[in-house]
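Complex 390.
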Amino acid sequence: MRTQVAIIGAGPAGLLLGQLLHQVGIDTVILERKSRDYVLARIRAGVLEQGTVGLLDQVGASARLHAEGLPHHGVDLLFGEQRHRVALDRLTGGKHVTIYGQTEVTRDLMDQRAAQGAATIFEAEDVEPHGFDGAQPFVTYREGGTSKRLDCYVIAGCDGYHGISRASVPSEALRIFERVYPFGWLGLLADVPPVSDELIYARSERGFALCSMRSHTRSRYYIQCRQDEHVDDWSDTRFWDELRRRLDPATAAALTTGPSLEKSIAPLRSFVAEPMRFGRLFLAGDAAHIVPPTGAKGLNLAASDVHYLFEALRELFLDKSEAGIDAYSHKALARVWKAERFSWWLTSLMHQFPEQSPFEQRMQQAELDYLVSSEHAMAALAENYVGLPY
Ligand code: APR
Ligand code: PHB
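Predicted structure with adenosine-5-diphosphoribose bound:
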């Protein structure tokens, strides 16, 4: 089999890239290790920057997002038992974010791709990129026990943090930057109305908490937990009790609880692999970088990478120019590092660290007090939260 661009991974990065390329007549095949149902059962974050929505508009996969997504014009910071609103729209000249689950973005892109008859091979086993240091790369895989080969001009590694693409690059060609945080997030999804119309990021002495949502009737809550904690030790009652203790009394009293649909623990990590291009192999999304979820940047960064990669590949295939692919890694990384900085900063500001000294505690409190008293500091937060331009 032959295609122009072999895409490894059918997460949001791979699917969005596939749709952008399809629109300009560039042929793609997506190879995905898991089944469609497995991919669509993964619960991920749900805050979309306007740039991400714009890309979904560009490929025509945003009808449901506009019908069901919730525009949010502010977020709350809660500390010292007080809620402080960050007026995203006023502080950024009218920008906002949209609450719409990443799982739904993935479903919309998959449905559109299937309707257009573009090839996605699910349950592709032992996917392996080859020859990307030359002009004739190819990908091998097994489908239903049969070995297959996909020839292409370019390989897009959109296969997430644990994927094969980055792992196929010789380690001496990669530079890794990493921070692992000494805690995790325990998340709970429930069909209960959200406690507030907007998201609440809470710093308390018992640890961080986040009140988020998927709709007016479905809530997503998180609490900071120890890294070595087991989800089985957290009954729903224990979760709700702990969440209440991290909120101010009025918000805690307003909380509607109910049985969990899902509960899981995620580690927190900052990670960047440089560069994002190796000959004819290009990394995009979680394959190249991870952010802690505090800034809600994971999916949005995957989208901006894909925007840069799409523009570069369009230049390569349609204008026969390599200038775009030569600039890809540099352009994408410039935005990646800014989002890494924001996610690290907000994580450091809002969490309790195990070894934190009383001095560091006071520094966190002072920074939060300064933040909410300064229009300039609030504007810096807001402009990063809604997403830097690209
Ligand atoms: N072969 C084929 N597919 C693979 C392989 C492999 N060896 N390894 C992983 N995959 C698939 C995964 O099953 C997954 O469907 O690649 C896909 C990667 O998708 P994501 O992990 O969702 O990564 P990405 O598309 O970059 O999305 C960005 O935003 O909110 C964040 O981390 C969150 O997933 C999110 C990300
Ligand atoms: C979520 O709704 O899952 C969510 C929202 C905001 C974040 C992280 C996760 O910062």
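The two ends are 35 Å apart (CA to CA).
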